[in-house]
Protein: Flavodoxin-like domain-containing protein
Organism: Bdellovibrio reynosensis
Amino acid sequence: MARLLIVYASKHGQTEKISNFISAELVQMGHFVDIFDVESIPETVSVKNYEGVIIGAPVYVSGFPAHLKKWVKSHSDILAIKPSGFFSVCLGVLENDESAQRDERHIVQKFFNETNWHPKQWTIFAGSITYSKYNWFLKRIMHALAKKSGTDTEYDHDYEYTDWNKVHQFTENLLHDLSGPR
Ligand SMILES: Cc1cc2nc3c(=O)[nH]c(=O)nc-3n(C[C@H](O)[C@H](O)[C@H](O)COP(=O)(O)O)c2cc1C
């Protein structure tokens, strides 16, 4: 059984929800999991004590939260020698347009180049629109963003687009890496 670390950033809760889902699956399979929001990860947590690391982050204005980027960059040496995986959470991935898909992949590749961490496993999950947590201004922006993706939304609902089967598959792929030759 492996000891695993999950670190995530999340402003409106969807990346946290996905991280908790992955953690629950791993625990159910008998693994030991420590899970932290990057904003409150204790200094005493040492990546070298884990056999694998999973990092998740949401896309905000075509990039990932600065705090998470900083944490990954400062741990890139140790992350490079561990089985590790990354998931991005965004809405652009819902667009059918190939150039929008390319843009989302480009955001991830730019993050890898900037942090000097290049995990073997990475993926992009569709996130959520949580009107209940947005202010007036953000509601209008997100409504327009959803429309661009071909989705008609209403302000009095929250919308979750995450494909949980895809999250499950990602977890399986990571475990496969962990059990494979290093
Ligand atoms: C202010 C704001 C900016 C966003 N910018 C982008 C973006 O540039 N590209 C994108 O695909 N999704 C964007 N999104 C959608 C978020 O990535 C999506 O809602 C995600 O589920 C948020 O994750 P979280 O709940 O963990 O914070 C944006 C959302 C907000 C509220």
